[in-house]
Specification:
Number of helices of chain B: 13
Strand content of chain A: 5-15%
Number of strands of chain A: 5
CATH architecture of the largest domain in chain B: 3-Layer(aba) Sandwich
Helix content of chain B: 40-55%
Order of helices and strands of chain B: HEHHEHEHHEHEHEEEHEEHEHEHH
Largest sheet of chain B: 7 strands, mixed
CATH superfamily of chain A: Thiamin diphosphate (ThDP)-binding fold, Pyr/PP domains
CATH topology of the largest domain in chain B: Rossmann fold
Number of strands of chain B: 12
Strand order of the largest sheet of chain B: 2-1-3-4-6-5-10
Number of domains of chain A: 1
Radius of gyration of chain B: 19 Å
Helix content of chain A: 40-55%
Shape of chain A: globular
Oligomer: heterodimer
Amino acid sequence: MQVSPTLVAAREARLQVLEPPRRLAAAIEKLSEAARAIRRTAIAAVYHATSGHPGGALSSADLFACIYGDALRRGDDLNRDRFVLSKGHAAPALYATGAEFGLCSVKDALSLRKLGSRFQGHPHVLDLPWVETSTGSLGQGFSVAIGMALGLKMKKSPARVYTMLGDGELQEGEVWEGAMCAAHHKLDNLVAVIDYNKLQSDDFNANIMGLEPLGDKWRAFGWHVQEIDGHNIALILEALDHAATAGGKPHVIIAHTIKGRGVPYMENVPAWHGSVKMTPQQTEDALRALGVAEADLKNWIEGNV
Amino acid sequence: MSSAPQLIASGTDSLREAFGKALTRLAPDYPEVVVLDADIAGGTGVHHFRKAFPERFIQFGIAEQNMMAAAGGMAAVGMIPIVTTFAVFCLRAVEQARLSIAYSNRNVKIVASHPGLDVGPDGGSAQALEDMAAFRAIPGMTVISPADATEMALATKAILDFQGPVYMRTGRSASVSVFDAGHTFEIGKGKIIRQGCDLTIVACGVEVARALDAAKLLEQKGISPRVVNMPTIKPIDVALLTQCARETGAFVTAEDHNIHGGLGGAVAEALAGHAPAPIEFIGVKDRFGESGEPEELAQHLGLGAKSIAAAAERVLARKKAA
């Protein structure tokens, strides 16, 4: 796993007992900018693919920035941390994250869903080893992450496994099979992050199959539960740190997010979950909202990045 | 007070027992092997492994989907997970085997006991007659069904030495001994175990012993059947089938499985592409099973030696008419 050395240094600085507040502020600013970059690349990728899921990519971008920019520790093959995107349809955000942290180029990420591209609609590990496993059928990435965490523990590796789930994904029975399993085996090296944007393919979770009380469910299954604002970088970092240090139980971070976050016309609109075809105008509006300068819009639309 | 009842009667040389014992014997030489169980270790034969290597035995509870996908994760960190459950519950996790094992090319071995009518009295709900078809349809998945305890021990070593995902059937009932100690096993290879020139009976699993019995019946009628043991259903031994087509010109396939999609399907596909010849299919004819002892069920549903012999006579007539 390649993680920017400056961000690793920032994390180490924050972990000092008397951490200088200015350093923390700098790390937050860096990660906020990384999250904006992830959103830009993800939106452009969905535009160029003429299909793909923008809503969940935008809701999860801050989480991606903090996980890849801060939490994941490098190491040899056995001792490195791993991240599994169980909500595989957030692939545009994963690839955009890879581009932000040097695992691929922005141009690579923009080849999303094209014939011959290794950047398929859902991540495939034989195409891209850094995605760790192939996902796209909900619930499975979570189980794979559990298997990794179990295996790493048996091999006495200190490595942690992070996995991101969607909220709709929690309707899969396999997730609760896994939740029981991880608690039973005391997998405190496992950190599940839920992108809780309240919307799924067709409608709000509450109208499709209600999830609440969600925190109570995970607590009842024997997990260490944190609920946070999934767009507040400082709170995400704090929750990830806490998950990395508290022992004895697997960790879940229920991150309350807004689907389509960062692009006003997409926010909280169910139609932007699914595989959509974005127009050039919609894409320009979105990129403008995400801080792309007027002079650069044309390049993004033409893929010259 | 009487002693606790034995929940699961294990035949001393059932294929599941042969598998469990072979795996336990081999385990010291394969330190990356771990066994995954869904609360039926006594039924799948891996209780032997659990006793000898408790630290390498992982309990997943009655939750096969999570177990199957988690095996992919354990393989991703360098282990060789052996997923064990009944064949019918492997069907429950076919999609996990597809995405998290085969599509990711994980070195996972799925070993399924209680396949086919061999399950017996538990009845139709428990008799997996579709498993070989389902797993055979997954790209990159090797599918194996050994014939007796000797071959099972050899196949167990072979799948541990093989790099890639495997689905292997064991068996519940006491098995009939077919091979002597000099038998060899290689993934992807069938073997002529009885020479003959009029037709070829291709069989796997429990049907191999029945095919040999059928050959004796045919011999009494002056027919010379060849018998091929075909323990690897995928990849099927095309070269051997082509040779048998050239030398005998007619086939009967025999398997404890639906006639659709398993050994018969694999043989038919291979021959259609390389050496077309008439084929008769012995297996369960696209219906579900029912309760009964395995031998009774085999007679009742047309999988016994007499049924195989009758199919041989039918195919011989077709060959002559052609």
